[in-house]
Amino acid sequence: MSASPRAYTPDSPEAALKYAVQHIQPDRAQLVEGTIRPVSRSWSHESTIDCVRAAIGATVARLTCVSGRGDLDLPGSCNWYIPDLAVVPEALTTGAGALLPQQTLLVVEVTDEFDGDTDRVVKRRRYAEFNAPLYLLVDRQERTCTLFSAPSRLGYTSTNGPHPFGTPLHLPAPFDLELDTSDF
After folding, report:
1. More confident residue, 94 or 133
2. Taking all residues of the chain, what is their mean pLDDT, rounded to a whole number?
3. Which pLDDT band, with edges at 50, 70 and 90, does 20 fall under?
4. Looking at the DSSP assignment, which residues form a beta bridge with residue 32?
5. What's the rounded Cα separation, in Å, for the pair 71 and 97?
6. Residues 6 or more apart from 152 whose CB is under 8 A from it?
C-alpha cells in the first residue's frame, strides 16, 4: 500500500507564495518584489548567457563549481529569483531546493529587451542585501557590463563599470580572469 501524499500547509503567506511559484507548470517563474514573472528568454538573450558561461567555464571547473540557472531564495522577502547564471560550489548542488544568494560565488543577470530596470535596480539591491559576493550585470540595452562587489544591506559598495561591450572586465578572486565581453 502506498503512502498518501502529504498535504501542504503553509507556515506563512511568504512560504505559500514561494511554494506556488515553484510549482507553476509547464514553465518556471520567479518572484520579483511580490510579482510573479515567467522566466522565458529570447535566443539572443540565451546566446549572451552562453558567451559568459563559455568565458568562465574552465575557471568554474577548476574551482569545483557549477554554473546554471537554479533557484535563489531571498528569505523574509517576497522574492524568489532564477538568475540568468549563477556560479555555486558543486557541494551545494547535491540537495533539492533553492540556494541563498550568499552561497553563490557570482550571479549574472542579462537585461532583456523590455525591462532592464529590474536587473539594474531591483535585483542589484536585493543581491547586495542578501550578500551575493559578485553581481555581473550585462546590459544589452546600454551595451555595457558592470561588476558589483562588496555587498552590504545598503547595496554594493564597489562598482567596476559600466564598460562598453568589447572592453575586458576583470573578475576578481576566486575567478581572477579577464572576461572578454566582445561577443555580448
Report:
1. 133
2. 90
3. confident
4. 35
5. 7
6. 128
Q: What is the 3-state secondary structure (H, E, C) of 2-28?
A: CCCCCCCCCCCHHHHHHHHHHCCCCCC
Which whole-number Å values give the CA distances from 94 to 19, 90, 132, 161, in the listed order? 20, 7, 20, 35
CA 184 – CA 21 distance, rounded (Å): 30
How far does CA 83 lie from the centroid of its chain? Answer: 3
Q: How many residues does the chain have?
A: 184
Grid look-up 549572451 returns 48
Question: How many other C-beta atoms can be found within 10 angstroms of the C-beta atom of residue 124?
Answer: 22
Put simply, whether the predicted model's pTM sits higher than 0.70 gets the answer: yes
Tell me the three cell numbers of residue 102.
550568499
Q: What is the 3-state secondary structure (H, E, C) of the chain?
A: CCCCCCCCCCCCHHHHHHHHHHCCCCCCEEEECCEEEECCCCHHHHHHHHHHHHHHHHHHHHCCEEEECCCEEECCCCEEECCCEEEEEHHHHCCCCCECHHHCCEEEEECCCCCCHHHHHHHHHHHHHCCCCEEEEEECCCCEEEEEEEEECCEEEEEEEEEECCCCEEECCCCCEEECCCCC
Give the residue extent of every domain in the chain: 42-69+82-179
Superfamily (CATH) of domain 42-69+82-179: tt1808, chain A (3.90.1570.10)
